[in-house]
Fold:
Amino acid sequence: MDKWALIESYYKQYGPIYQRIKSFDQFIDEKIPEIIQEYSEIECNNNVLIKLSNVEITRPEINEADRSARVRLTPMEARQRNMTYAGSIYLDIELFRKNVKIDEKRVYVGDIPIIVKSKYCNLHGLSNQDLIDFGEDPMDFGGYFVVNGSEKSLITQEVLALDRILLGETDLGVIKAQVISVKGAFKGKVKIERNTEGLLYVTFPSSPRKLALVELINALGIEKENKIIELFSDEKIIRNEILLNLDKIECTSNQEALDKIGKAVAPSQTQTYRLRRAQEVIDSFLLPHIGQDKKDRTAKAYYLITMATKIIEKAYNLRPDADKDHYSNKRLELSGKLMENLFRYSFKHFINDLKFQIDRTISRHRKLNITTVIRPNAITDRINFAVSTGTWIGQITGVCAFLDRVNYVAPLTNMRKVKSTLDSQRELYEARDVHGTHWGRLCPIETPDGPNCGLSKNLSLMARVTTDVSNEVVLKNIDVEEINI
Structure:
């Protein structure tokens, strides 16, 4: 059977860089509005409140020196004139002081580079003849930026899966389960450990160094011993372990458990403040991907119990260690996710700069209005610097590189490259090896010699990476409106 007909049909439908463009489109359509929504209300000093809404990204356009605006900027013109092929970001901003609206305006807040052939590119949907008229190659797949006249391609990053429980065991016999929980810009590691005596302890960001699992479950609102036991499996081994923990660490009331956390996070404070601070820490930093409201505490307790159950099963060899090299425990950050991280960082800096400009304007006794406190360069400069240098959030380098145009295949290979975030100077033998789960996903041969061997890989010929799906879509597909605990 000739399989090339199938491959040709697949490439006609999707193309070799389909996932890159779809990921970027999702970033523009869904992720930017979500980030704006996170900062929709900004409280500043001097009783000033800023409200942001109705974000809009325009297609790339150019403003000439004679102030005659041209509606369309093409990638070819951006290359020839050493310009950045970028769209403009507009927001509706309302300015309040002492609960009185003093200004309202739709303003330009910055630029964002647009991927060629994406939904917001001026070449999107054009015929081959139209592309030729604009000086473009109709065989060009797109999928890259044009920054200061240079073509730049984002390298897909291979990272450990977030919001996923991973089991492991230390050399001292301590068994642990950890999950990297992410909500917006916050990323924190929640870890449960079982020591050699069988006691379970939890650590999470801003928490006491080690908090007994039973005490944390009490703080989450489940106080009675029999209720805690019911939440675990009926298996004799698991029931015995939980009874051991309950025997060594007695259950306390919800207030007492919260107060113990409060004494660690807010020492030398009044009890009322300690309790409030402990509740804030639990809601904000303990498993934030589940939720950050009071109503989510029960769901967090169930999640911790699931982690503890897996640890106990591992202790009695009923469950193996998590294989971090298994591709179910990996995720690929495409162009959209990389730009989302960069935009969130840049927009947060824009918000801080906005607060600073407002404080400075008020301290100088000048009239407060939106035009004078907005500095669009706060977003534009940071995004352009990262795309130009390839230095991303978290000091990760090599994320963005010049597009290789040696031949027709070179840019396609470049844009289907997958790079691990692990340190190339370390041996990491297992991480560099070909894993069984690479079958059909990654090419076992296409990898460089030297330090990056096994860490820099390429997607297989017909491998396609899916993008994020919202919870609402999943619930709709399984015909469930809401999950109640």
